[in-house]
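Hey, can you fold this one?
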Amino acid sequence: MLALDSAAGLDAVFGRVFRRLGLKRPTPEFRVEYRPFASLRSTIRLCGSRAVVHLADVLTGAPPLVNEALAEILLAQLFRRRPSREARACYLAYVYSPAVRRRIDEARRTRGRKRLLPPRGRHYDLEEIFDRLNHRFFAGALARPRLGWSTQRARSTLGHYDSAHGAIIISRHFDSSEIPRFLVEYLMFHEMLHIQFPVERDGHRRVVHSRAFREAEKKFPHYERARRRLKGFSV
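Sure. Predicted structure:
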């Protein structure tokens, strides 16, 4: 753990932002620390007259404006207010910048664990499905990531691609004789497209499914049929 001393100034930043928000209560004593979280995570809690703030250490060295924006966001969260659009835009623009995203991915890779079941399930083999789709739709150009079934039979997150761990995970709910193969193939195809079309940035917004992504997705032979079958689920 790396604690910020008063010379770093973040305790003063939080106090200044607190007063600027016009909160009608005494200014807490702020205790701000960096923590080696496995993700971009920041927390704040009020303990009597002290506010304890834990920031992800990947934010070390952030510009002063970003620190003020994050202070406003956390204080708004604590006191049930809405942060300004300017604060959100400033913070998101920073954390979505390529250099910071690389630090976040590295922290996730080295500090976090990705739990998944083997790719060969009871009814479907994800490696075989990936290789077949890769040959048919991607000219074999995609390097095979880690593949596996989720440890839980999730019905909300049907599949996801984790770029930090280089892994595609499909919900174990679909490893069933009652699930047609084209649905599993569609889920795999969708996640493979995330490899081909990485997340983009539009101002301070992350664009997960770009126009190019959506157009490529429609080339899946059973696209409409798969979407109808999965209506009510998340993809």
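The first strand starts at residue 2 and ends at 3. Let me know if you want another pass with a different chain boundary.
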